[in-house]
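Title: Comparing notes on inverse folding

I've been comparing how different people in this forum approach sequence design from structure. To keep things fair, I'm posting one structure and asking everyone to reply with a full sequence. Here's the target:
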């Protein structure tokens, strides 16, 4: 949080901000408060920290401090915030942790600060929905928020602001000079002297360019302290706002103006406010400037089209001359007339983005129309589009042609035709999505037409307006406003009334490190303090997808300041490659590179900045090799033979078959053939790849502090590359800030690179990847193409299926072969298919190697299976749920992979889900809604799931633990589990506590079904202590331990689980989540529920939002949160109901524990198929009855183009007419 003091008004302002964007030079005279400053466990924790932790708002904890400070800054300004303010404050935080945490509890903890009467009622409703037999938390235990106990603004900064004269500040860095003038005159002189120097206020544009694109500026000028650029002046005909005013200030000023001025004078203001609500997050708006958005965002600015269409004047200044206005230079085509707002004027803004909030627009618009008084005759018309060209584009000719026309459908048709003709967008336009963006252009125009028509109260029956009757009016406005109902529902897990209070099974227990997460005291890899003479490492990666390395020139890099050495493949003491399967994983590329992002060498320097600067100076010479294969579409198309010729597959190919498939196809009534594409997914763990290697001074020993899921694998890889026994390498993992499968092989390679550097230099070496490099170097979830042929009867029964799966494995095998196996083993999902043949192939491409990811293949194969289920329903005339129910496992029998399955829980889940969700009632309501609404549709879907838990190789499931009791009664547990947010340390800790106090009532609940090794060790100790306890039953725990020690009883025990691969012992986890895309919240043993919640939301991202994009040369475009969108607060279902099946036993796991974290992700596809259902309703209403398939992710573009209508047809006609062959 940053705090400022205004000496004139004597006001103090508090603002949350992104630390990664704030240059230290910009903080002169500003107070900075971090999460450590507001509270800690050593003194006193703050009420915000307490609530977030105790309300179960933290799991992996890496992003928890950001949540805390967002709410804290809000409360410093508004001690009694409204629900809207809370939602706005949290919407700006990057919710990476959503995918692993109970995100619903973050807003929950904030609600307890609400005081106003209306909000009190809403909170009462919210709390009522939380009432269950077992409380999640006790609000009475929370310490009150006492604003008198907060830190005051530093008096010395107040005195400096009031007494010291303003002077130009100049900060000289190693390569860059920062200049902050105090007057407009001085600014113009500086700009004349340094014409290429950027002007920086919020650093939201220049900063990312410098960090991620390597842009270098010798001089940076900051005009933030110039009073003339911070002016806010109210005038009779509008507002004057300084260019350095923050967007948050602009939003507050406009909100105040709207509340005070007459409605007819604030139409432009309200349109701007609508755009500002979704422009970045609160943290961005607090520092980003109005002038910066206008100038730097160019085409993607959400404000420029509205400012242009509203005839706003842009005042520009140059040395010796002031130009007023100069709007045509910045916003070409702006009309020159300016009208005073009257009741016949209408202004609106529209935008479409990959995500509703904190996402740059794909396209946007500002539209304004002025009518002659008391008529619908157009007097003036303005249309500006953003996201279409290099700057905001005015449809000037179209607007001129429509002046004098009546506001009717004939005018609308003509406007659409003219706009498409005037605003050109060629097929090769930057950014792609040409047809979609052109469709948006006229869709925006149509929305504006409806808004104005409604306001004119001239609703007429037409093919366009069947939506617009009675409830349809409200629907449109809700659609535009994007209102959210914060409602949450819980279903409690049953807990035995006789269960002891200290027994945690089934109870909501706060995360063991929850308080430390909230205070910032929880340590992650990069929080480890600097080691003496520590060096920093930056990797040099390939810029070519497939090429021979001709030369490596490191001379300039070695001369760079701070550089200690450069590490290449020649410095690897032993093996430069590591085998998981037949093809190796490579540490340093030697003779050729196989993908963009492959590591070639590394620079070691005295600072991270110096290392990165020097790495950019390493020159690599390439000779392009053929072929360059980037996508599996190439491999599965007509040139499949060419791919085979070039050996573009990793072996072996996997196949499974049961029954007589060919014979069954001869007997079926109908055959369905199709193909579906499923895109990849980035892990997007909050903590990027991190490693610190500390060499010891003897025997080539090394300590490796690393963020990984698999320390034993890291140990093996590092030992292999160094040529030392594994016992010389000690891996340390305290906790991991998210992983999802992405911190195994990739982490091993990076740890090995750092270890080689440490071995060569003799110094500790730290390697922390930034987000862009992390996404470039590492792979994610496998993109898959599924081809299927399914034979079924007219009653919906499936008799035969033949499926082929092609995975994009990337340049090395990694875990791709295992993923291909899982795809086959789980492709049947919940269905009995008597005759089945399937095979999977891993395609070798010139992209970074894809790897393990939450769900491990099932999210892809399951979606393909459910897609053909949906298509069979459409082809047979049955409902999708009927087809699914007909084909579900019904009786105990063997699956096609020879595992005995009892489907009792599957059937129970299905029936309970239908009943609890009132599925059929909702379906009727959805159908009725769709009949009454032409332009807005709802969908509903219910998806079953069978998730076999475990691995097909026994050794992958083995585990061990050591439990040691010290003489003071404390207990040490050593185990191989990794704390990644799932609460494993909490679970172990409570097991030990129970063992210490009531050994005869040992209980354990875990998300891992094979943790019996832990129980085994505790039971061994119990047996050893039983004679002592029986002799002194009233003794204390310490008495028993002391006596055991004196009797020389071994107080250490090991537990071991050797793994299980027998089909009869492999546990089967069946989970059902009912979701109708409106949904929210959880309960029960809270970590398990949060795992389901987070996995589901991550599934929403996979199936509807997250899209990886590459250039034709294989360079990843989506290398950060600006381009790659994961679900945020605005994307969370509004009602979320999770039920755990009651009285369900799992005899193969500790106390019927269940694997929650993996299975829930696939259930996110229920949103995918609910959208499919809505699209089906659209197409059916428009007479489009032919079969169709939707690919994943089901982005706004794919949804819109699948909903064919008059506008998409118009775009296609004009597009193909204007596109040369």
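Reply #1:
Here's my take.
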């Amino acid at each position: 949080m940053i705090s400022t003091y205004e000496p004139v008004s004597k006001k103090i302002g508090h603002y949350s901000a992104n630390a990664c964007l704030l240059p230290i030079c910009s903080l002169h005279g500003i107070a900075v408060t971090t999460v450590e400053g507001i509270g800690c466990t050593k003194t006193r924790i703050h009420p915000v920290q307490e609530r977030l932790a105790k309300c179960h708002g933290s799991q992996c904890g890496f992003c928890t401090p950001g949540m805390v400070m967002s709410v804290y800054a809000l409360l410093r300004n508004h001690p009694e915030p409204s629900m809207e303010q809370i939602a706005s404050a949290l919407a700006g935080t990057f919710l990476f942790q959503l995918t692993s945490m109970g995100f619903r509890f973050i807003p929950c903890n904030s609600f307890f600060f609400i005081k106003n009467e209306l909000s009190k009622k809403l909170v009462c409703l919210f709390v009522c929905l939380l009432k269950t037999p077992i409380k999640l938390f006790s609000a009475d235990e929370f310490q009150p928020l006492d604003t008198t106990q907060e830190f005051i603004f530093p008096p010395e900064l107040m005195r400096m602001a009031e007494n010291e004269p303003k002077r130009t500040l100049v900060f000289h860095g190693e390569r860059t000079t920062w200049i902050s003038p105090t007057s407009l005159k001085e600014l113009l002189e500086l700009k004349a002297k340094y014409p290429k120097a950027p002007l920086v206020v919020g650093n939201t544009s220049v900063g990312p360019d410098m960090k991620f694109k390597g842009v270098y500026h010798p001089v940076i000028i900051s005009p933030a302290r110039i009073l003339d650029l911070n002016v806010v002046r109210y005038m009779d005909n509008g507002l004057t706002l300084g260019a350095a005013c923050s967007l948050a200030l602009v939003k507050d000023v406009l909100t105040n103006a709207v509340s005070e001025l007459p409605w007819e004078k604030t139409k432009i203001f309200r349109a701007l406010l609508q755009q500002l609500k979704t422009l970045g997050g609160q943290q961005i708006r607090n520092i980003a400037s109005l002038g910066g958005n206008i100038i730097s965002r160019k085409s993607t600015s959400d404000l420029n089209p509205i400012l242009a269409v509203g005839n706003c004047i842009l005042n520009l200044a140059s040395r010796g001359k002031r130009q007023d206005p100069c709007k045509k230079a910045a916003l070409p085509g702006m009309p020159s007339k300016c009208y005073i707002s009257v009741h016949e004027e209408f202004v609106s803004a529209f935008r479409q983005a990959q995500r509703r909030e904190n996402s740059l627009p794909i396209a946007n618009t500002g539209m304004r129309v002025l009518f002659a008084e008391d008529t619908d005759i157009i007097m003036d018309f303005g249309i500006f589009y953003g996201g279409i060209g290099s700057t905001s584009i005015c449809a000037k000719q179209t607007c001129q042609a429509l002046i004098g026309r009546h506001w009717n459908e004939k005018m609308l048709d003509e406007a659409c035709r003219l706009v498409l003709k005037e605003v050109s967008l060629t097929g090769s336009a930057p950014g792609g999505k040409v047809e979609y963006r052109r469709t948006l252009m006229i869709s925006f125009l149509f929305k504006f037409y409806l808004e104005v028509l409604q306001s004119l109260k001239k609703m007429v029956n037409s093919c366009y307006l069947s939506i617009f009757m009675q409830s349809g009016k409200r629907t449109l406005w809700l659609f535009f406003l994007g209102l959210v109902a914060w409602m949450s529902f819980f279903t409690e897990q049953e807990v035995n009334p006789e269960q002891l209070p200290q027994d945690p099974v089934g109870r909501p227990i706060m995360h063991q490190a929850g308080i430390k997460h909230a205070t910032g005291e929880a340590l992650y890899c990069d929080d480890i303090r600097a080691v003496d003479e520590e060096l920093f490492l930056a990797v040099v990666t390939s810029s070519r997808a497939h090429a021979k390395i001709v030369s490596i020139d490191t001379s300039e890099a070695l001369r760079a300041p701070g550089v200690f050495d450069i590490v290449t493949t020649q410095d690897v003491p032993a093996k430069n490659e590591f085998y998981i399967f037949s093809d190796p994983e490579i540490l340093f590329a030697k003779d050729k590179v196989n993908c963009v992002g492959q590591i070639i060498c590394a620079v070691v320097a005295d600072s991270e900045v110096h290392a990165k600067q020097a790495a950019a100076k390493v020159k690599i010479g390439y000779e392009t090799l053929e072929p360059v294969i980037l996508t599996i579409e190439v491999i599965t198309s007509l040139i499949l033979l060419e791919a085979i010729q070039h050996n573009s597959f990793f072996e072996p190919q996997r196949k499974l078959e049961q029954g007589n498939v060919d014979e069954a196809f001869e007997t079926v009534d109908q055959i369905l053939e199709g193909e579906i594409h499923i895109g990849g997914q980035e892990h997007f763990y909050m903590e990027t790849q991190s490693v610190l290697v500390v060499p010891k001074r003897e025997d080539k020993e090394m300590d490796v502090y690393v963020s990984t899921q698999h320390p034993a694998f890291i140990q093996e890889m590092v030992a292999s590359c160094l040529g030392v026994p594994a016992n010389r390498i000690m891996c340390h993992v305290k906790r991991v800030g998210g992983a999802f499968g992405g911190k195994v092989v990739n982490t091993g390679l990076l740890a090995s690179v750092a270890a080689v550097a440490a071995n060569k230099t003799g110094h500790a070496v730290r390697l922390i990847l930034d987000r862009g490099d992390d996404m470039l170097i590492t792979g994610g979830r496998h993109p898959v193409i599924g081809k299927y042929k399914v034979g079924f009867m007219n009653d919906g029964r499936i008799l035969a299926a033949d499926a082929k799966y092609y995975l994009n494995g990337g340049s090395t095998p990694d875990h791709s072969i295992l993923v291909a196996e899982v795809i086959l083993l789980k492709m049947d999902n919940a269905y009995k298919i008597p005759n089945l043949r399937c095979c999977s192939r891993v395609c070798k491409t010139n992209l970074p190697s894809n790897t393990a990811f939450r769900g491990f293949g099932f999210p892809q194969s399951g979606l393909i299976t459910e897609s053909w289920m949906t298509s069979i329903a459409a082809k047979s005339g049955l409902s999708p749920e009927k087809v699914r129910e007909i084909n579900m496992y019904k009786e105990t029998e063997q699956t096609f992979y020879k595992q005995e399955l009892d489907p009792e829980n599957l059937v129970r889940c299905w029936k309970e889900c239908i009943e609890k969700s009132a599925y059929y009632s909702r379906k009727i309501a959805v159908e009725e809604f769709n009949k009454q609404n032409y332009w807005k549709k709802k969908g509903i879907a219910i998806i079953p799931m069978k998730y076999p838990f475990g691995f097909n190789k026994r050794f992958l499931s083995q585990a061990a633990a050591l439990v040691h009791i010290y003489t003071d009664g404390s207990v040490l547990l050593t185990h191989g589990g990794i704390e990644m947010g799932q609460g494993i340390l909490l679970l172990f800790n409570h097991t030990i506590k129970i063992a210490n106090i009531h050994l005869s009532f040992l209980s354990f609940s875990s998300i891992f079904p094979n943790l019996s090794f832990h129980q085994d060790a505790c039971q061994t100790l119990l047996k050893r202590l039983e004679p002592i306890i029986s002799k002194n039953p009233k003794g204390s725990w310490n008495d028993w331990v002391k006596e055991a020690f004196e009797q020389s009883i071994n107080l250490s025990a090991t537990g071991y689980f050797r793994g299980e691969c027998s089909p009869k012992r492999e546990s089967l986890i069946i989970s059902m989540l009912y979701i109708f895309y409106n949904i929210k919240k959880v309960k029960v043993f809270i970590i398990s529920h949060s795992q389901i919640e987070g996995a589901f939301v991550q599934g929403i991202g996979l199936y509807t939002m997250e899209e990886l994009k590459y250039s034709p040369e294989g360079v990843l475009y989506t290398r950060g949160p600006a381009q790659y969108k994961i679900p945020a607060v605005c994307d969370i279902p509004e009602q979320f109901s999770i039920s755990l099946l009651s009285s369900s036993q799992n005899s193969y796991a500790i106390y019927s524990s269940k694997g929650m974290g993996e299975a829930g992700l696939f259930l996110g596809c229920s949103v995918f198929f609910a959208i499919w259902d809505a699209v089906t309703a659209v197409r059916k209403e428009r007479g489009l009855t032919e079969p169709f398939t939707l690919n994943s992710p089901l982005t706004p573009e794919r949804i819109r183009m699948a909903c064919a209508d008059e506008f998409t047809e118009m775009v296609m006609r004009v597009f193909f007419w204007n596109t040369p062959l």
